[in-house]
Structures are given as structure tokens and as C-alpha cells.
Design brief:
mainly beta, 2 domains, seven-stranded antiparallel beta sheet, 3 helices, globular
Length: 243
Amino acid sequence: MFTDKDVNARVQEVLADRSKDGAFVFHDPKLDTDLNLVYEEIKIVRGMEGYGWFANVIFHDKDEPKKQYAIDFWFKPEGQDLTLMDIRVQKGPKRDGDGYFMITRLPVAWWWLPVQEHPGSIEGARAWQVMAAINDYIVENKDDDGNITIKDDKTGEDLKLQFVEMHRPVRHLKNDGDYFACTDFRKPGSKDEYYDIDFWVDEKTGKLKVNNVKVHKVPVQEDGVWTQVDRYTFEGMDFDETL
């Protein structure tokens, strides 16, 4: 049984392991850049039964202390260990005159959605539960460089892509009960080549699991500008949006 104290200690282990020259080095997938951050404090630790522990940690930029970040660390209990699953920016700095203030980065990570939702039961899974299953799949299939390989069902090509973010809505197909959500991935080494990847999830085993991954949109360069082109649309699909 883990406690807040265990999570705090695990955060410090991660920081020690990933720090260089006095700064915690975190590659921000959205900005596609390394952040060099100085630890300030652990603001809050939350546990979600069945999903793990989440520590929200405050840092500031090594070279510009007024620039603060709130970074989420997601850990999952595995036996006697707390395994690091993911690190995401929850809030980043926004300039305000000569200073900065922190602003929530959108879309918010799925582990913040239960805090925002209205109480009460609904039929089927919550959107954040579907997103958690997708995030699990992405983490489990990452290589050592943090990329996952996705088969392009049109070309047969294996696409090696970097996960950027997941966004709502989560949709629920009325005929077979599957859920699906869109995610943004980037081609490693590129700033502008984005793929929209759809993850399809079912709970036929009693647990939400990814059963299919499909390329929804692909990057195409037109007049020197990268845009996205649909591989397919949702036209004709009978679905509703999951809360």
C-alpha cells in the first residue's frame, strides 16, 4: 500500500535520475524542446484507485526563474514499485509585462477530468476512463526514444511517431459499443508534420482495451506549408459523445 510520502520520494528519485547540471531535463512533446527546470515544491499528490498516483510539481526555468511550470508525474503501482508512466505539462508560463503567470495547458490530461465532472453515474464508461486506456496503450508501446510504431493501413508503412496530446470528444458507437478518440502525433525530428491517430477501445473483456489504431489524418505539404488531409471521416457513423 503506497502513501503520499512514497510518491514524494519517487518524484525525487525521478528528478535525481533525469537532472543535469542542477536542472531537471524534460522534453516537452508539445513544444518539441527540452525544458531545463529547477525544482521548487510538490504542490499536490492524488491517488486514483485502479489508475495510479499523480504528483503535481512546481518548477521554474533554470535561466529565467520567473517562468514557472506545473508538471504532472503519473505513477502506477507494480508490485513493490511505483512505475513512472508519463510526465505532462499541466501549466506553463505566459508573459505578463515584465513577469509571467502560469496558465493551464489545453487539452488537459485525462487525470484532471474526474475533478471537473459532475457527480453521479452514467451508462457506460466515462471519457477520462477511455482516455486512460489509450494512454496506457501508448506508454506500453513506446520504444526507448519515446516513440510508438503505427501501421498505416493504406500504405502498409510502419510509422514511427511521437505522442503529443490526446483531445476530446470521446465518441461512443451506438451499434457495437466501441469508443474512439483522436490523438496528435508528430513525426520525430519534424516541427510541423502532424498525424491525427484514432484509437478504438472496447470493454468486451470487462476492461477497457485498445482494439484498433487507425490513421485518421496525414501531413501533406502544400506551397511549403504542412496541412492535414483526411484518410476517412465520421460521416455515416452513428455515435454519441461520452461525458
